[in-house]
Amino acid sequence: MPAIIRPKAYESNYKNHYHMHKLVSSLLISLSLLISGCTSLLPEPHKLDIQQGNKIKQDDIRKLKTGMTRKQVLFILGTPLLKDGFHNNRWDYIDYFKPGKGEVIQSRLSLIFDNDTLISIDDSHYTPPEETPSSDSK
Fold it and tell me: Which residues pair with 50 in a beta bridge?
């Protein structure tokens, strides 16, 4: 069988295409490694603050006194986050705050009633909220 004779232009075009493909592949790999190593230089995305539950102030807790009725407590603190159907005599006010940057702050205030009368205030898991400047104070 006779040997296939190809023109010289075909060989040079094939070699150029092969080298160009190799060069582009090397550049893409290098560029992807460079970009992946620079993620610390990119700006951090903004994270929103998450506020859930009952925001309770220290002044409101000071207003609570044993012997108050449920209506009086509702007037001072508002509706509790948790009213357990199995324990109608217990109300839990829970505050959960997760800042965009920083640690989660959780707080709990538990109130125990006997019939319609407040008999116990458990603020052992209560953390006073940090004072932050509000837009109202302008």
Answer: 98
pLDDT digits (tens, 9 = 90+) for 83-97: 777 888 899 888 888
Calpha distance 39→34 (Å, rounded): 9
CB neighbourhood size of 128 (10 A): 12
From the number of C-beta atoms within 10 Å of its C-beta (0-12, 13-18, 19+), residue 22 rates as: exposed
As given in the structure block, the two tokens for residue 101 are: 């940057």
pTM of the model: 0.58
Half-sphere exposure of residue 37: CA atoms within 13 angstroms, side-chain side: 6
Could you tell me which of 130, 118, 135, 50 has the C-alpha nearest to residue 80? 118
What is the distance in angstroms between the CA of the first residue and the CA of the last residue of the chain?
A: 95
Rounded CA-CA distance 126/93 in Å is 9
Q: What is the pLDDT of residues 81-137, one digit of tens each?
A: 877 778 888 998 888 888 888 888 888 888 999 989 999 998 888 777 665 444 444
52 half-sphere exposure, CB direction, 13 A CA radius: 9
